[in-house]
Design brief:
This protein is an alpha/beta fold and about 280 residues long. Helix content is about 40%, strand content about 20%. Strands 1, 2, 3, 4, 5, 6, 7, 8 and 9 form a nine-stranded mixed beta sheet that branches.
């Protein structure tokens, strides 16, 4: 049953940013139909039939040449008809339980100051990973703004205003090792840029301790050892991610002529950071 709110107060705009994902976007759209009053798709310039699939499924489709993750997301949010915005990517699908919990929130009347976080679980090499992450993906744009981060952009909401939704957002993020490496290369470029813009230059201490610490976190603390080869692969890829970020920070810092070595003060600062 479609829930109607004539004044628009509790209506929901689902916003999807996409590019060249005709095989997946249909599933993402279908799982949002029950709670969405409109679905807005922003395409970055697909060469496949992504836009046609979205149009056939009744979405409002906009073409906007890819400006980056945060800017593309903001472009879509600006074009939403309603203030309540649900954010989803083309490689994600909403579980029945999550859809029901969004509808329940919609029916009981949503407080604009409340934002909702949901639990996302990803896959890798044919296995679902047991441990996921909570992400704020449902909020009122009249109250909160998206962060200006180049990657992993999220609504900026105080913790006391965040409420958890039951259910799962299933993330079909794995396509192939080749694709995974390509995306890591893109994301680590952005991470390095963010670090330098935040005045966090290359640190040998961080280079030495963060990759092995990340492996221990993923493989042991998060229990990926239970997942066999896929779990081991995920853990090693996170090690690679950390190394790539820090070597790219070094590369960019060196290019600007700002690498400093042999400074006792610098070593003291790095030790202080490592002890945090």
């Amino acid at each position: 049953m479609k829930h109607q709110f004539p004044d628009g107060k509790n209506r929901i705009s689902t916003v999807i940013i996409t590019q060249d994902d005709e095989e997946r976007i249909g599933a993402a759209i279908e799982t949002c139909r029950s709670f969405s009053d409109e679905i807005v798709v922003i395409d970055g310039g697909s060469k496949d039939r992504t836009m046609q699939v979205a149009e056939r499924l009744g979405c409002k489709v906009w073409l906007n040449p890819w400006p980056g993750y945060a800017k593309q997301r903001a472009y879509g949010i600006e074009r939403a008809a309603w203030d309540w915005v649900f954010l989803i990517d083309t490689d994600e699908v909403v579980s029945d339980e999550l859809a029901a919990s969004i509808l329940a929130a919609k029916d009981e009347g949503m407080d604009p100051l409340t934002a909702y976080e949901l639990y996302r679980i990803g896959d890798f090499l044919g296995k679902w990973l047991d441990r996921g992450e909570y992400l704020v993906r449902f909020y009122n744009r009249s109250q909160y703004q998206m962060s200006a981060s180049l990657v992993h952009e999220v609504p900026e909401v105080p913790g006391e205003h965040i409420r958890q939704l039951s259910g799962v957002l299933w993330h079909h993020g794995f396509r192939s090792i080749h694709d995974h490496v390509q995306r890591f290369n893109k994301y680590t470029d952005l991470e390095a840029q963010i670090a330098l813009e935040a005045n966090k230059p290359f640190s040998i201490i961080r280079l030495l301790y963060r990759p092995p610490a990340r492996f221990i976190q993923k493989y042991i603390v998060h229990g990926l050892y239970k997942k066999g080869v896929p779990g081991l692969a995920v853990s090693f890829f996170w090690v690679m991610y950390e190394y790539m970020v820090h070597f790219k920070i070094y590369e960019q810092t060196r290019a600007k002529g700002n690498v400093k070595t042999g400074s006792a003060a610098r070593v003291k600062e790095e030790r202080s950071y490592a002890a945090r």
